[in-house]
Structures are given as C-alpha cells and as structure tokens.
Amino acid sequence: MVGNSVSWSNTTEAVNAAPPMPDPATVEALPGTWMFAGIAYGHFGHFIVESMSRIWALGELAGKLDGIIFTPKIVGPNVERIVQVYTPLMQAMGVSVPARSTAVPLQVQRLYVPRQGFGMMDLIEGSEKFRRFITENAGRDIAPKGPERIYISRSKLPAMRGGLIGEAVLEELLIGEGYAIYHPQKETQADQIAQYKAARDIISVDCSPLHLVGYVGDSAQRVGILTRRSMAIAESMVRQIRTFTGADAFEVNALVRDWVPGNAHRAGRSSYGEIDLPRTYAALKAKGMIASDVPWPALTDEQREADVARISDLHAVRFKPLGENAQPSPAPTAPTSS
Known about the structure:
The structure is a single chain. The chain has 9 helices and 13 strands. By secondary structure, the protein is α/β, with parallel strands linked by helices. The strands form 3 sheets. Strands 7-5-8-9-10 form a 5-stranded parallel beta sheet, with helices on both faces. The protein has a 4-stranded parallel beta sheet with strand order 3-2-1-4. Strands 6-12-11-13 form a 4-stranded mixed beta sheet. The model is unreliable at about 325-338 (pLDDT under 50).
C-alpha cells in the first residue's frame, strides 16, 4: 500500500483505503512506466476536480511515462468508456500521454504515485504545484471564442440534475442585459474552454462548469455565482476561481428555499433552488454586471407553481419545499405515453 494513492474528499475524509490483495490468478502484467492518476469518476464535476487532481506530476515526469492509469469508482462495463469521454478534456489540460482505466488488478512494471494536489471543500485552492501546472497548460492551445457575457444555464439538463425554480424568468431578464444563455452539455469540451476564455462576465448557479472556469479563466473576468442549494458549494467555487485566476468571483446568496424530490429531507444534487430575484438584481447591479435601473420583480405565485409542476412532471415525482414558511407543491400530472 502506497499512502499517496489514497484520494480525499477533504483533508479529513478519505475516499478509498488499502484494498485486499487480489488472487494472483486475476492479476495482469503491464509493462512500461506509468503514473497512477487516482479514481476515474463518471460525473463531470468530480472528474475535473478529483480525477484530475494528480496531473500536476506530469510536469515533473515529462518524457518518462508510457501513460497514466485510473482505477474506476465503480467497476463495470463503462470503465474504459469514461476515460475515453474525457480524453479531449485531459489533453486540453496538458495530459499528453495515453490514459486508461482498469477493471482488473494490474501489476505495473514501474509506477509513479503522486500525491493528490486538488480536491473539494478545504482542498479547493489546490497545491502550489497543481496551480502552476494548470496555469501553464490548461486551455493553452485553445483560442477564446464566444460571447463576452454568458449565463451558464441548467434549464435543458435531463431529470435529476437540479437547477432553479423560475430559471426561464431569470434567463429572459439576463437576455435583456445582453447575456447569451449557454448550455455547456451541448458543446464539445474544447468549445466549452474556448467560451470560458472568451467570456468577460459569467453568471451561473453553483455547478460543475465553474470548476472549468477556474482552470481556464483570467483575472479580467467577473463571475457571479448564484446559490441554488443550502450547501457550502458556491463559497468553495468562489475560492477556487479567485485563487487560480484572480478573477472577481463572488457569491450571490439570495436563496429563499430548497425544493427537493420525493422523500428527500435535505438539499442535494437533484434539488431546485428558489431565489429572490430582487435581491439577486441588487447584488449583480452592485457589481456592475447588469445595467438596468429597474429592479427585477419577484416570482409570482403563478410562475412558481407552474415551474414546480413542470419539474415534477419532468422527474415523475412530486417536489416539496423545505423550510417553515414554504408552500406545498402541486402534485404532478400523469406522464404521457411519449
């Protein structure tokens, strides 16, 4: 067991531990010199934060490696597929050697095991070596391209991804301020990087694409992060972006309540946040990110109820509010056969 192979969610919570030794009959030999890259996560946000956390060592191992190896979070048929999906992103981040994941025990001829240099929560500012590698390599060969003002939207994500109540209302208000509505899941990884390099003003809820902004952004940007759930996510994203890029990143916490699906009792990945639009307007106006002198109106009861009904239908589960003063959500209508 090599201590550096342990991955950490934060400085006190380990993700993995020493595994039982495998049956020698199941072990495959891998010749050459490789670097252990950690755990391959299928989720975009966890991949770019936790699966990428050891790539800083590539700068010190240049010319020595045949490739890098991940172990999968979950052993299954998509073990190699996950790495293939994120190969363009890794290449854009400076990974210039082949990458693979393995579902079977490998005995590697020579293996470097670097320490994790980045992570979630209190690891979000990264190590000095990790930040230097990212600054020198992330998006280096991708030219900026796209609108200078964008809102990173969640309105076209599939079910169980979470978002904002009344996001369509917010989008119309921001379109009036000259913002393009950006749906990163519809773009290539290279095009996402190009857009985040081009943007001068970025507004987004606390979500995974902001980690990529933290990798490839710059000090001239303004990044307003709207809190969408009762979790300390936005604050950590602010710290990453400020530390890595020097951009003017800030949190806008105008959260009124969380809406959660089914029997959930706390906010999480699939919850929806209801935000106070007048307070959001005031915060963005104070930062110079919007120009209108007309404050934004609050969501009406009709707008709220219609959107809660919409997301309940989308997820085929009733969404309920958390909080003492929350109003009950309407029951979802029966889904159609399509």
